[in-house]
Amino acid sequence: MAKPIERLIHELVKFPGVGEKTAVRFAFHVLREQADFAKSLAQALIDVKERVRLCSTCCALTEDDPCPLCRDPKRDTRVICVVEDPSAMLAIEKTHAYRGRYHVLHGALSPLDNIGPDDIRIAELLRRLEQGNVDEVVLATDMNVEGEATALYLTRLIKPTGIKITRLSSGIPVGGDLEYIDATTLTRAFEDRRAL
Q: Which of 9, 95, 108, 112 is the most buried (most CB within 10 A)?
């Protein structure tokens, strides 16, 4: 096989969930397409790395700082929904059930993986809460061991402030990642969230 094809397959296998067979299929798809397809794909990858950064307010991925959701005057600034990653935020946004602001942690506590409180965006969340204009924090971390541990840790930090803390209801299956949950289940989870 030609070296450029081998190199492309080698790079594609690095994507999560992409095995060698899928990487080969992707590589040959690129070969079958017009040259503009490969150039457009390459430019999109470069743009993502060069132009996307963290929102200085909510830590979401954005091109503009602050992000569009933080700038939106129609969003309720008194409620912050805490999610593990940007894909969970996108899943919640698709439901149109939530109109507050967000905070993206970029991970969850996982001692087995050496991920502690300093490795995710907890300090940024606490700084936002210290500003005093938040009435409720919705903990929307995943319903798995790491997500539950993160929610419990955040509850212990936030509870002394007197801010109301809620957790998405258990309509979301334990062990489920928010990005894979359907809109109806996520909507019900928001409507039935409970205080901690």
A: 108
